Each structure stands twice: as C-alpha cells, then as structure tokens.
Amino acid sequence: MELDKKEAEVVNRAIQSWEEEARISKELAAELRGSYSIRNANVDAIAIYALISAVSCGLLAFGALVLDEKWIELLRKRWGFSENIVGILFTFLAGLLVYLAKRRINRSKVKASNEVYNIAIILTVAIAITYWTRGLLDGTGNYAIPLLLASLAYAGIAVFLRSTLLWVSAIIALAGWWGAQTHYWSSGSFRFLGMNYPLRMTVFGMAIWGSSWLVGQVRSLAFLKEATYTVGLLLFLVAGWTLSIFGNYADYEGWKVLKQSHFWFWALSFTLVLAAMLYYAFQYKQETLRDLCLIFFLLNIYTRYFEYFWDRTNAGIFFALLALSFWFVAKKAEQWRGKTAA
C-alpha cells in the first residue's frame, strides 16, 4: 500500500505508540511498518503538471481549430454541408467521447485524467448545440435557447459519467441562460421584474445554493451535492458583492455620476449577511461556508475602503492594514488546523 508523506508519518506514529505501550510486539510493529511504502511525491507532481499541460495544450488546439470556426466554415462551404449536418457530426463526436469516457471510468479510477475526456465533451457539445440552433432556429438572436440546451446536455452527461466538472459546467450554462432569458423576456431592458442583473444573479445563486439540499436527497445525484452547494454559494457571494457596488441600479452612465454613498443600503446589507453567515459557519463548523465567507468579508472591507476612504487615507496605512488582515487569517487558519489535528 502506498501512502503520501503525511499519511505515512501518522501511521508510523501510531505504530510507535502501540509498540511503546506494549499493545503490539516488536515483530508485529516491524511487519506493519513494512506493509506500506511512501509514494513518490515528485512523480505525482510531475504527473499533475504534465496533465495540466496536456489539458492546456488541448484547449488551445481546440480553440484554434474549432472555436475559431474558420476551418469548419471552410469545409462546410467547400462540401456544401448545412449547419445541421455539422451539428450532427459533432453530436456523433460528442457521443463517441462520452462512450470512451465511460469505458475509461470503468477501467481506470484516476479521476484527474478522466476529466480530460470531459473537457473535450464540454467543448464538443457546445459546438454541436451551436450549429444545431443556428440551423434550426435560423438565427433568432435568443442566446438563451442554446444555453439551456447545453445546460440540460451537460447535466445529463454529468449524471451518466458521475462527473462534477460537467455538473459545474451545467450550472454555469444555466446561469448564462438565466441572464439571457430574462434579458429576452424584458425586451432588452436592464430590469426584469424590477431587478437589475446583479440582483437577478443573486437570486439565481441563492436558488442554486438552496437546491443542493434537494440534490442530496436524490440517491443518484447525492455525489453532486457538495459541488452544487459550493458553486451556488460562490455565485451568490459574487453576485451579492456586485450588488453591494451597483445596487439595484440599471443605468450604467447614471451610476458613474452618483456617489458610492448612494448605495450604502446595499453595502450594509451585504456586510450584515456575510456576518450572519460567518457566525452560522463557525457555530455549526461549516468549513466551505466559513472559508468562502471569510474571503468575501475581506473583499467587502477592501471594496468599502476603495469606495469611501481611498482619497482620504494614506496608501501605506492601507497596505499595512492589508498585511495585518492576511496575517490574522493565516494565524486563525493555523489554529483551526491545530484543533482539527488534535
């Protein structure tokens, strides 16, 4: 059995403690120490970096060859293919990649390398849906439809392949659909049901965050609960932070003229919400909620500083406070780690 360095240290301390307390014999202790080996961390690091490089190069190649669309359009026009035919070809290609990914999952349990196939699936499905909608909808200009189709396709494949990466892509596509669809429903207005974009996305993020509980109740989707929770929370916090800056204002040119103090209600509301979420996270030991809220609480403080005090405070004092805040976070992190280890 292979263990990393930290795991091996924990196991070795346990064996040594049992041996000193005479719970096990020296022979059994020696046998236990010989039952595991330390994994070569350098090899693992090289493998991870090589995988990242392969994915990056693959994405660049795919972007240069496919997303640019020049060679697709060149072949399509040369051979007289319609946009529907291109959509069919990429649909078959996406199906083939899903089949190969499923076979690889059954044969290999290395999750990181399996996700490489899922990246190719994400891009191929996007191209297929783009050409399908361009051919069938005849360029209606409503980008919400292909985004909704992409979200449904990614979600279905994510469940089939048990891939959190595809599930996250489905949520992101659904967020794009929400923004595009509400824009379409409002006939191009920046307001929908009295909400501007930041407020709409805050509501959307809250809905995704809350839906993680429902996802966890379905046995076949339970493995996606954590990803849904984290992405929904992140969307809610990012949109809420944006809302604290712009408020529910829908005129960008008008917003630039107003003083930031005009939006004090939204800034105060976001700060109070963060404080309440932090209290809850510490009270009930919600690590993901705690860590993300701490990051956004600091971001909120710096944002308010730039809004209200940048022209009145010495830059040296600001960066000194910045350094102290990061030191405080690091100190607390060490304390939490010590309590967890104990």
Explain what the structure shows.
The structure is a single chain. The protein has 342 residues and is an all-alpha fold. The protein folds into three domains: 1-39; 50-185, no CATH class; 197-311, no CATH class. It has 14 helices and two strands; from the N terminus they run E-H-H-E-H-H-H-H-H-H-H-H-H-H-H-H. It has a two-stranded parallel sheet. Helix 8 runs parallel beside helix 10. The longest helix has 27 residues, at 41-67. The protein is flat and about 80 Å long. The model has no long low-confidence stretch (mean pLDDT 77). It comes from Dyadobacter fermentans (strain ATCC 700827 / DSM 18053 / CIP 107007 / KCTC 52180 / NS114). The chain crosses the membrane at residues 46-67, 79-100, 112-131, 143-161, 166-185, 197-215, 227-250, 262-282, 289-306, 312-330. This is DUF2157 domain-containing protein.
